[in-house]
Structure formats: C-alpha cells, structure tokens
Amino acid sequence: MRVAVLGAGAGGAAACVELTQAGHEVRLWNRSAQTLLPFIGTGVVQHEGVLGEGEARPVLITDRLATAIDGADVILVCLPTLSHVSIATELASLDARLPVVLNPGHTGGALEFATAYAAARRAAGDTAPVLPPIAEFNTLTYVCRKLRPGVVTITGRARLVRLAALPGGEAALSLARALFPSAVRVPDVLYTSLANLNMTLHAPGAILGAAWVEATRGDFTFYVQGMTPGVARVMAALDAERRAVGRAFGHELLGVAAEMQQVGTVEASVTDTDDLAAAIASGEANRRIRAPDSLSHRYYREDFGHGLVPFIAIARAAGIETPVASALLSLGETLTGEPFSTVGRTAASMGIEGLDREGLLARVGAAG
Question: Domain of 335: which CATH number?
Fold first, then answer.
C-alpha cells in the first residue's frame, strides 16, 4: 500500500519503520524541513528497540504536502494533536479526498479534523463540502522517542488499539486495519476519544509533580518515581469520571491500568490493575520515560488543552459532572498561564457546541 505518513516526529518515524518493514511504500512528510534534515541526509530512518535495530528507507521524504499525498492510497496523520486543525485545513486547500487515519485522534480528534476540513472548504467557496473518510486510533501505536537526530527509539508497540470512524469513514477503517492488524474496531469515535488514556495518565502527575518538574527540569522517571500513591488516587478519581462519561454513551470502558495491559504498557503478569501506582510502574515500555522538562511540555500543552478540555465538553453533553477533571484544568491554566479552555480543543472546534447526549450520538453515527 502507498502510505503518506504526515509527521516526522517519533510517532511518524516509528510508523515509517513498521510500515516499511511490512512492505508498504511510505512517503514521509513534515512541515519543517529542519526536522527532515537528518533523514534526508541519509535517505533512511534509523531505528532501535522492539522493531529491531536498522534502517527503514521510505520511497520519499519531503516537506511538500501535495507531493507526499500524490498517488497515495491513504494518509496516516502522526502529528501532535495541536496540529490537527492546521493539517486538516491544508488538506482541504488541496481538496484531498484520500482516506485519513489519525494515529492517534487523542480526544475528539476526528470530530475536530472533520470540522476544520469542512470549514476550510466552505471558506474556499464550496457550499456543500464532501469530507474524506476519517478514522482514528485511541492511542499512538508505539511508545517511542527521538533521543538522537535521525534515530527513533521504539520501546513499545501496541498489542491492541481501538479504532473507529465518523459516518462515511468505512474506507479509512478498512485501510487502517490492513496497516495495523492490532486495531480493534469499536462502535464510534466517542469510544476512541474516551479510551484515550493520556489525559488520565498525564494530567494528575503533571500537576502534582510540577514543582519537581521545575526544580529538576524533569530529572525523574514520570511513571515510576512520579507515580506516588497520592498521584494514583487522583488518577483513579479522574479515571472514574472518564468511565462514567463512557457509560452515559453506552460504552463500558476498561479502567486505565486494565486498558494499558491490553495495549501492552502494563505487564501481563500484573493481577491487581486497581493498584495504579504498582501496575503502571511495572510497565517496561514506560518505566524509563523521563518527566516533562518544563511547563511547556506536551503533557501540559496537549493533555490539558486537547485532553481535559474536549473531555469536559463531551461530559457536558452527556450531563455528567467532572469535578476532578475541571479542577485539574483550572490548576493547569493557573500553573502554566495558558488559557487552555479557549485555545484548546473546544466544543466549538469539534463541531459539537450545544449538542446534548442524543445530538452527539447522532453526530458520530451511533444509536441513542
């Protein structure tokens, strides 16, 4: 299959490695030519970790979006969630109709992507925009980092990811499952949005460990040294809110550690997934990951503005109170000075403003 991988950060580089190993033709794109330079210089993506050690050679490395998608069968978006609106807008400017798979959608990604794409087409004079097929994973298919230029270190590959599409997205679903056999289809993108665990995993520790982050510039392991009993208690309360919102939409979600065990980031040998501190610290893929080095790290910018904000909006549509999520968001805005509630992934940017439970279910193509 001819795959345009959008994003040459760690996630995009890891996808390039796996898909190339599987025999697919990968076109690697990134907006910043500077990010691409280490890859352009060698023509390969070097890698180490669970996918082996070696080199993956994409058929094309480019900072020209039109070139990357020309002749492709599918677009795989491996970009930070803060970039979803801009990439949807750019694809709309090219009137790109190829199936789009968000790896991952994070929380509300498919909804926001579709809203931004349609808005850009209307701004271009298209009074009846036709969306491309859009699907999303709940989580990135890898645990990975770029610790050295041109090299991606892949410490984990998801054994299972949740996959759903917006109405009309069957082509994207089919291609996503062909590319990633570990993908398991779930009923709708509310499920994938609520099965995104980054908000639950990162927000409590980011707030409660903020002084340590600033004092040490993140010189501690986030999932082991930072996973104290107090952090775990806040995480458990936030997770209970997430699962309550899921139930309001008819989805019985696994708890955070049990879901991580399905993915493979909590060890299979763990028997008590309610003991969050011990279960999460056990995960070999995550145990060496360092804490944020500043309050501008993505654990703050992404998981508050594009995790807590859309989660609270979805919960509001369901009529579910979220006092822990709301408190963390308020503290995060005060701590960082960032107005996440207005600049993040809002109800308006997801195209769900004013919708109640039934209206949101209808928007995602689910039965009430």
Answer: 1.10.1040.10
Give the Å distances, CA to CA, from 251 to 192, 247, 277. Answer: 10, 5, 25
Tell me what pLDDT residue 367 has. Answer: 55
CB 299 within 8 A of CB 82: no
- Predicted confidence (pLDDT) per residue in 283-340, tens digit: 888 888 999 999 999 999 999 999 999 999 999 999 999 999 999 999 999 999 999 9
Q: Let me know if 296 is exposed, middle or buried by CB neighbors in 10 A (0-12, 13-18, 19+).
A: exposed
* Cβ-contact 256, 203 below 8 angstroms: no
Q: Which domain covers residue 231, as residue numbers?
A: 197-353
Q: Please report how the helices 198-208 and 229-248 are oriented relative to each other, as an axis angle in degrees rounded to 10.
A: 150
Start-to-end C-alpha separation, the chain: 37
Total count of domains within the chain: 2
Specify whether the CB–CB gap between 272 and 312 falls below 8 A: no
Residue 182's CB is within 10 A of a number of other CB atoms, namely: 15
Cα–Cα dist 273/242, whole Å? 16
